[in-house]
Amino acid sequence: MRTLILLALAGLGAQLVDGSLGMAYGVTSTTLLLAVGTNPAAASATVHLAEIGTTLASGAAHWRFGNVDWRVVLKIGIPGAVGAFAGATFLSALSTEVAEPVMALVLLGLGLYVLTRFTLSGLPTGNLDKPLRKRFLSPLGLVAGFLDATGGGGWGPVGTPAILASGRLEPRKVIGSIDTSEFLVAVAASVGFFVGLGSEGVNWLWAVALLAGGLIAAPIAAWLVRHVPPRILGSAVGGIIVLTNIRTLLRSDWLAAGDAVQWTVYGLIYALWAAAVGYSFKEHRRTASTAPRPAADVADAAEAAEAADVRPAEAGTTGR
């Protein structure tokens, strides 16, 4: 029961991050399942089964808040489903001894990408409203879907920054469209795992626990996407993913590092992670303070100032 409660809380937290950042539900949840000793293919299968429900709820919430571009959903989601099915059948064929460090490497790479991307870079908006072409979205979806199934996550970490970097779609619609299209990826990956593993490859109770937490968080995250600073959140989540998967690699047969080496590496990662989050917070505050104020806010401030100037004069006139 304790494990199920922890998984539900993890699903809630992961969906809050995913729904407001456009990534990290799969990577975070799969990393957690690997940390408690789950077979890599079974971990990814369990997470993708839970994601069928969470992505459906998240997509509906994002659609309700106007965060979805349906043209992008179709152009990237269908190739993503093809890549996810291929990745699921590929991972199912690997032995556990090979799959665990391979998955840890994929997750580590994705974690480093998330950490560096959101720590060092802002969100470009110079090409807003220019169309996103199918020749860009289709290969992106194919690669992201394959990585998502083999790494237990990767749809958001690959798709969201790539589309954000184009600057052609505002951030909230990038996040909403990626979350919505992930439903197609989750369904295709789940079918692939059922083909490769059968139903015994999935821990159904764990999938339900992850789903329950994600369903609670989905509508909250769709609302928070307008308010949570993605730069800080990206740095924080990226650090968690990097730390957990470094731990898996150091303890694997590939490296078999001693305790002294492990703790030295952990200390360095903690220090770099803290520095990254601190830098992201500093840069977020700097850019927020120098960003031009919206015209509506400026107009409201001007009206308030004018009203403040008029009231004393009116008061003086009344007193005469």
Automatic annotation (TrEMBL):
Pfam families: TauE. It comes from the Bacteria. Keywords: Cell membrane, Membrane, Transmembrane, Transmembrane helix. The chain crosses the membrane at residues 72-94, 101-120, 140-164, 204-225, 232-250, 262-281. Residues 292-320 are annotated as: Disordered. The keyword Membrane applies. Residues 292-307 have a biased composition (Low complexity). The keyword Cell membrane applies. It is found in: Cell membrane; Membrane. It is a multi-pass membrane protein. Belongs to the 4-toluene sulfonate uptake permease (TSUP) (TC 2.A.102) family. This is Probable membrane transporter protein. It comes from Streptomyces ochraceiscleroticus.
